[in-house]
Amino acid sequence: MHMARSTKATHAPEMKIPSTRRSAFRPITEAELDVALRELSSGTAPGDDEIHCEELKQLGRVSRRCFLRLFNCSLRTGQVQAKWRHGIIVPLLKPNKPANSMASFRPVTLTSALCKLMERIVARRVRDCIEDKLEPQQAGLRPARSTLDTLMQVTSAVRRRKDGTKTADVFIDYARAFDSVDHGCIVKALLPFGVGKHLVAWIAYFLKERTAQVRVNNVLSEDIWLTRGVPQGSVLGPLPFIVTVDSLSKRPNCIHGLQHGFFSGDLTIVCTSADLSEIQQTIQKGLDCITHWLAEYYMEVLAEKTEYTLFGTRETNLLSLKVGETALKEERTPTLLCLTKQPHKGLRKHVLCMKAAASTRLMQLRAVASPEWGPDREKLRPFYLALVQAKMCYGVSSWWFDTSLSARERLERVQAQAEHSLAGAPKAANREDALCEARLKPINEVAHRRALEYYPRLKAKGPAHAKVADSIFPSEHPIYIRLANVQHLYSIIDSTEKPHDAKVLQWARRVHFNATALGSLKADAPEKDKKVHTMRRVQRFSDFDYQVWADGSVVLSVSSGAGALVYPKDGRREVAVLGAGSLACSHRAECVAMEAGLNRLVDVIELSKTPRTRVPAFTDSLSLSMALSAGHEVVDGAMLRRIWDLSLHIVRLRASVNFQFVFAHCGVPRNEAAYKAAERGNTKPQSYPAWICDMVTGVDRHVRNEMYRAFEEDRMPRTHRSVLLDHVQPAPKHTKADRLGESLLAQFRTGTSEHCGWLHRVLTRKADQLQCRWCSAQDAASDAAVEHPLVETVADSASAPDHGIVTRKGGPIICPLCNMVCSRRQAGVVQLVKIHGLKRDCALALTKKARRAALTYKSGYTCHVCGEDFARRGL
């Protein structure tokens, strides 16, 4: 089947390779090769030459120059050697497909690692030419785009329909789209995008006369000649494909009332109307248009797998749609990019599928942790977010607002189970309390946040995407209410920008970064040590022509300031002070300060005309240094891009820029001067454009403050935890307790255990903050004992009776080895087996002779929070 569909159509003309005689040749630079080497994926299977990508990354300077000459010769002449055009096809079974059918396998091609390196260089140059010219409906195989774009476009059309109107969706399935695209059509499609003829010729020779072998169980087939299609699994293959189908994306735009969404080769056309005949006519016109295009490009549609769904009615077979002579069948619950839809309101089936998948992964997570043993909460939480919540909340911003309350409750129950597993609290704990203990957000808040992130990012991509954003989010969408709460804190949103093209890569090699901590010190190191190591690093640059110092100052949701100082080696310093915006975080304030400092530096260098200038730029923001060191080809934020542009402009002025990280507030004079300048910036106008992440964080902060305010004003129902702690804030992120200690803390704060082990002391609001709140020797107030009846207190520890040896299984005991108070004998056995490594028989014998636990005991104990040892005492 793969061989038949990869053979050129009999009526397709031969591919015409453009001539490169009169076109200018731009050679590949060392910087382009370095970037391509960095982007090579590690751990991938090698091609027929058995060269691994890890080996290429270790090449020295001489070897890299040899490969550079080879690549330039190949690009100049357009010749691609036969080994680069040979691949090994490995059939991979598609998920949830039967293994006894050839159509269930996806042919993945393993190509040469050297060819992959050359493909990355060519792909970057091609992407620079085509990215701005592609249709916004195409969301697949493009940077900063995902399946969410297509899901938003398609589901919003169904959501916007009014009462009495109906929406028809047609899900078009191609016959092996990647394997059947014609090579001549690819060359014809690349030229109108302005791609250089040398690149087009190289791509044509790369696709021409390709050969492949199929490998199954380490057995290779004979060579297969592929005269059409692009190799799946290659670096360059997706780009020619989306360029070719871009012309298909333009044709439905010419049909009135027809919308569409494109993700790679998955095309969905949508029509909404109250008149069924109008829907029938519009959809059929779109299908005919697509059929004609496919005939022109020598591709075909699998009519037997192409389906349609009519939303807004429970009746079936109301439409009669055809592709060619084949009638389309109606599917009541279609699946689009893993989103299962239904013709009436709600997404019950999709929610049930997500619940089942998330529950399976949650069971796997439970197998590695329990309240008594396993990783602590902060190690389990990322696994839950990546394995369980990521599956449960896939594309959640596109479908959450269409689900019913009962469907939402099903997903909230799954997260409630996860909360108890992460925090170690029993199921009887209140759901809100367990959320705080596990440091998680409700699914509803996750959906609102993701929708809030998506809306401004889409609008910032340009006018065409802004229209799509306004159509996806109508005026009655709930995110506008949240946006209105912080709109007074910013004027405009800072837009994203396209990455730099390959021409500036050579200049970027003269921008250096040092984002490592000085002397391997941590943030909590003594100030004296910080100052010593900072001054050593600064002293290395004392002979440089200029120094730039930048710092930021932030008052959350009120104001922020940015200050930058430019110190010439001989001359007067230059100061730049400005406001960074009311929503700015410390990282953003540092970015504004660095941008202002580099701007001032450009003016100084241009006036002085100093040849071969060397400039160190000092910042105490490690996040800024790491973000810039990722490279200008990765950075897409407008402000970080402007900092890179200024750095490249300084390089063009025959200067080198060296960004250096230093510790803050450790007594370095120039750093302190920059901070004072930043504090003055708090009084400046806060009209700087806001970042999208700052806006989203500001909305989250507003929601959190409203919740705290409602709690203080008694407008929120009080739970055991909120009464005990007198707040609704999440549990601390970092504690000194182990897994068992965290579980006991959660049980104590949620009131789900009368015997909280060693956490038998009263949590009082009068405790000294400098002391451990769990083992503080302060007496519990009488009102605290009344307020928290689950905790028993003893007035005089000296008069506390000795409870003797345990005579029943249900009583709390003291662990004979570590003085840990266990709720019962069974918990003591688990403690001795899991924590101390004893055998069960020995542990059972020890627990039978264990002392009965009370609020006071003779031998004392060790606090599992602060680690302090205590003698016999009580409250």
UniProtKB/TrEMBL annotation:
PROSITE patterns hit by this protein: RT_POL
Keywords of this entry: Nucleotidyltransferase, RNA-directed DNA polymerase, Transferase
Region listing for Disordered, in residue ranges: 1-23
Domain of life: Eukaryota
InterPro entries found in the cross-reference section: RdDP_mobile_element, RNaseH-like_sf, RNaseH_sf, RT_dom
Single GO MF descriptor: nucleic acid binding
Pfam family, one: RVT_1
PANTHER family noted in UniProt: ENDO/EXONUCLEASE/PHOSPHATASE DOMAIN-CONTAINING PROTEIN, ENDONUCLEASE_EXONUCLEASE_PHOSPHATASE DOMAIN-CONTAINING PROTEIN
Protein name: Reverse transcriptase (RNA-dependent DNA polymerase)
Taxonomic source organism: Trypanosoma vivax (strain Y486)
